[in-house]
Amino acid sequence: MDYKKLVTDALVKVLDGQISEDKVYDLLEKPKSLELGDFAFPAFPLAKVMHKAPQMIAADIVADINQKGFQKIEAVGPYVNFFLDKNIFSADILHQVIEEGPKYGDQNIGNAGNVPIDMSSPNIAKPMSMGHLRSTVIGNSIAKILKKINYNPIKINHLGDWGTQFGKLIEAYKLWGSEEEVKADPINKLLEYYVRFHKEDVDHPELDEEARAWFKKIRRWRRGSRSFMEVVPQRVT
After folding, report:
1. So what's the pLDDT on residue 228?
2. Rg (alpha carbons) of the chain, rounded to whole number
3. Most CB contacts within 10 A, which of 33, 34, 70, 76?
4. Helical spans, DSSP H, in the chain
5. How far is CA 131 from the centre of its chain?
6. pLDDT value at position 125?
7. Is residue 51 in some structural domain?
8. Is residue 97 part of a domain?
9. 150 touches 110 (CB < 8 A)
10. Which is more confident, 221 or 9?
11. Max Cα separation, the chain?
12. Averaged pLDDT, 179-205
């Protein structure tokens, strides 16, 4: 149902040709707050024609208009505010949803344009949290909405978190790590080593230099110059 047309028809019947139907339709506004209704009609353009103050015109319209199909119609200053009958509105929407099924809400606003969406992008050196789940759910919901209106959502999960912290982790593993411990509980154990590194480097700043050196080796490995086992040898006890 065209609810704007419903409001227009109700207004045209009481305005008695003072203004054209098309003009009434164009003048209808969406109020900034739902407390002011679903549609609002400004009476200003009728002031010169009817030789009345807009506030009086709005009050006269409310007194004469047929309120069938509306929850209520009220005058607020120079505006006539229309509140749709929510029972009729809800039934109409539900009928449309059932009739259109999975196609309900389909639009071609996006014209298949690409939209990148940043998902949770967890730090692979730390445990995941509820915050990662929240970001994933929000990102996935946005992607579904965009797809519905014919955008092409590109969901991005950057897992690298590339930085010197991995050099610190390697140095920590060399100093205090255990292969058996890491295999049994990889994320928590690596985090434990990482936390210990930051406690130790307060009194041993040379550890930071070692970490930077390891990170440089990782960068060279990523460029394919050496094998990873050459870059990060087995821990020496």
Report:
1. 44
2. 33
3. 70
4. 3-15, 21-27, 47-50, 54-64, 86-100, 130-148, 165-176, 179-184, 186-200, 206-222, 228-231
5. 15
6. 64
7. yes
8. no
9. yes
10. 9
11. 98
12. 91
